[in-house]
Amino acid sequence: MKTEDVRTLYVYNRWANQRIVDACRPLDPNAFARSMGGSFGSIKDTLAHIAWAEWLWLERWQHRSPKQASLPDASNLTAIARVFHDVASSQQAFIDELSDDRLGERIAYDNIKGERWEYTLGQMMQHVVNHSTYHRGQIVTLASRRATTRLRCRRCKLRRMSDDPRYPIGKFQRREELSASERRSMIDDIAAVPTRMRDAVTGLTPAQLDTPYRDGGWTLRQVVHHVPDSHLNAYIRFKLALTEDSPTIKPYDEARWAELADTHETPVKTSLAMLDALHDRWVRLLKSMKADDFQRKLNHPEAGPMTLDAVLGLYAWHGRHHVAHITSTRERLGW
Ligand code: NI
Asked: Is 128 exposed, middle or buried (0-12, 13-18, 19+ CB in 10 A)?
């Protein structure tokens, strides 16, 4: 961690806090303070917790260990917004005096319970932003549970992302050519799917797996089995396009596949094992491809000609999309 990184991180943090405070302004005070489950229950208390934690850590950076476990006044948005403003000014003054050496300095403090802890200043400063990001995410979840308390955040598309349960991460945006770093990050997304899917279903009971992710939608079990169905096709499409000249690929009827008996009868763990094995080979193949290979095309009878960059983007989105069906259902139902 360098001073420059800290500066960038806190510019982002200030911007994100401001966005979330602004997004709360149109909420009526009842919706703002209503308890809806989650760590702190209401949007107000979650927001107050973020502001309090930023204040508390700022104190600790300066070798103080306050024991105050909440804000003195968190009665309304104006009071909380004032704390954000004051803390951000003091953080900025602190950051202006910062040096790379100081970031490595170890600071001991007593937490609220009086226990002694010690971290480097750099670790503490990074922690604060992580912590605020985590709870800002909770506020978005709380707000999206109630259509009337929807947060509007055009820049991060939060509103659109939480609007339609069919598209928890938004719709796929097709692009025919990707940069090398975009490809790397999409290949990483594909490589992560088996683990993310396993984490997403861990601890679910058979009855929970048989719950649809939305009214009239697939059950969570069908979602899990659909992903290897789809990704087996994807793997074959890549191999066809890499070995033939603009091959026409075979679409499949995903809805009818998801109704076949194996979808209902196969344990989820079988599909997780399929994903492990399939993604292992698929990711090796993707990592072996040169930039030119990603411009090879296949012909989709419905979508038309597509580059392998576009197909890569589609499946990087697709894995995240279906994992989010499960994680958003768990969040919504408090599982
Ligand atoms: Ni799908």
From this structure: buried
Domains and CATH numbers, the chain: 3-144 (1.20.120.450), 181-333 (1.20.120.450)
Geometric angle at alpha carbon 47, from 45 and 51, rounded to 5°? 110
Q: Residue 146: its pLDDT value, please?
A: 55
The Å distance, Cα 254 to ligand 1 centre, comes to: 8
Sequence-ordered list of residues with C-beta below 8 angstroms from that of 34, at least 6 positions apart, any chain? 42, 43
Nearest to 1 by CA among 127, 137, 171: 127
Helices 220-243 and 180-201, interaxial angle, to 10°?
150
Residue 320: HSE in the Cβ half-sphere, 13 Å Cα cutoff: 19
Q: Which residues of the chain have pLDDT under 50?
A: 147-150, 152-162
Instruction: Judge whether 38 and 144 are in contact, CB under 8 Å.
Output: no
pTM over 0.70: no
Determine the distance separating the centroid of ligand 1 and the alpha carbon of 170, expressed in angstroms. 13
b/e 264-299 (16+ beta carbons within 10 angstroms → b): eeeebeebbebbeebbeebbeebeebeeebbebbbe
What are the strands, taking DSSP E only, across 79-236? 106-110, 116-120
How much distance in Å is there from the Cα of 231 to the middle of ligand 1?
A: 9
Q: What is the number of other CB atoms lying within 10 angstroms of the CB of residue 118?
A: 10
